[in-house]
Amino acid sequence: MTQQKTRLIGATAIAAIAIAGALVAWQAASQGAGDPAQLSDEEKLEILNSGDADAIAELLEAEEAAAQAQFARERLERQKREAEIEVERAEAEARGAAYWDSFDVDEIDLTGFEVAITTFTQPEERQEKLAELPIVAGFDRATEVAHLPSKFECNPRRFGKIGDILKSQPDLSATIDRYDIANLLDYLASRAALETGDCSCATQAVPLSKGEEFARRLFENSVAETTGNSVAGGRIIKRMSAALFYALDAEKRSFCGKG
Predict the structure, then answer these.
(1) Which one of 29, 62, 96 terminates a domain?
(2) 67 part of a folded domain
(3) 157 and 229 together in one domain
(4) Can you tell me the mean pLDDT for 171-200?
(5) Is residue 235 located within the same domain as residue 212?
(6) 22 falls in which pLDDT band (50, 70, 90)?
(7) Is residue 101 part of a domain?
(8) What does the alpha-carbon distance between residue 21 and residue 76 come to, in Å, rounded to a whole number?
(9) Who has greater pLDDT, 112 or 104?
(10) Is the pLDDT of residue 185 over 60?
């Protein structure tokens, strides 16, 4: 998103806040002690039962005006929230683009990883070994949350688009499925959040291309060296992706929850 569009969205949010503030001030000034809409329910009932047509009309007009003012205030508050979310979305997209453009999956250290996957058969043993390897322990952690989780869903159509990527990569799709790619994307997202302290969609909306690149690297560097059997390779990839997801997921949720 361009800086001009970001500034426009920011101006919209500021304008919405100002309008909402003006409306609240107007209501406070207009709804004085003599406003019929501010009467108690018992007092309103007395007026309605009094038979005084002028008093009844004044009360009904005041009630309608109060209802319209409340509706307008709620609408402005909703518009303000929507504008604020759009600003947050634009900022997260800008940070995410900068981070993921510079992120190279080939720099992830896989030392010992294939051994942990192929040698240790029990999930508990694999997770314990993974926690010691560079792929989990070999990057610096942020000391505090720099950006809170976003108020909107980061990538709602991600899962469906994974299928499209696999269809275009027959050599991979014969070995792995969309759940495997999703697990690898979640591993990358958790790693990014822990490393940068950014728990927003900037790090959580991992480009699908990064997941595909990472899956290919795992297959070529680990699975292909271990077995030439595609069925066995598929089982190893599935084991790998699940192990990586669980290796950082709980840590990331705990870290981001501190914000």
Answers:
(1) 96
(2) yes
(3) yes
(4) 91
(5) yes
(6) very low
(7) no
(8) 10
(9) 104
(10) yes
The Cα–Cα gap between 56 and 233 comes to 80
45 and 86 within one domain:
yes
More confident residue, 202 or 23: 202
Residue found by looking up tokens 């019929």 in the block: 36
Which amino acid is present at 170? P
Segment 45-76, tens digit of pLDDT: 888 888 888 888 888 888 888 889 899 999 99
Same domain assignment for residues 121 and 54:
no
CB contact at 8 A, 143 and 197: yes
What is the token pair recorded at 4?
């001009």
Q: What is the pLDDT of residue 229?
A: 52
- Give the orientation angle of helix 53-102 with respect to helix 41-50, to 10 degrees: 140
Please calculate the CA angle 156-158-160 and round it to the nearest 5 degrees: 105
Q: How confident is the model at residue 231 (pLDDT cuts 50, 70, 90)?
A: low
Looking at the structure, tell me whether residues 45 and 155 fall in a common domain: no
Backbone angles phi, psi at 220, to 5 degrees: -75, -40
CB-based contacts of 121: which residues, under 8 Å, 6+ apart? Answer: none
Q: Give exposure, 225-242, as e/b (b: 16+ Cβ within 10 Å).
A: eeeeeeeebbebbbbbbb
Q: How many residues does the chain have?
A: 259
pTM: 0.72
Stretch 140-158: mean pLDDT, rounded? 93
Determine the pLDDT at residue 230: 57
Q: Are residues 175 and 136 in the same domain?
A: yes
Q: Is residue 174 part of a domain?
A: yes
Per the structure, how many domains does the chain have? 2
- Give the integer Cα–Cα distance in Å for 200 and 188: 14
Distance of alpha carbon 238 from alpha carbon 105, whole angstroms: 18
Counting Cα atoms < 13 Å in the Cβ hemisphere of 196 gives 22
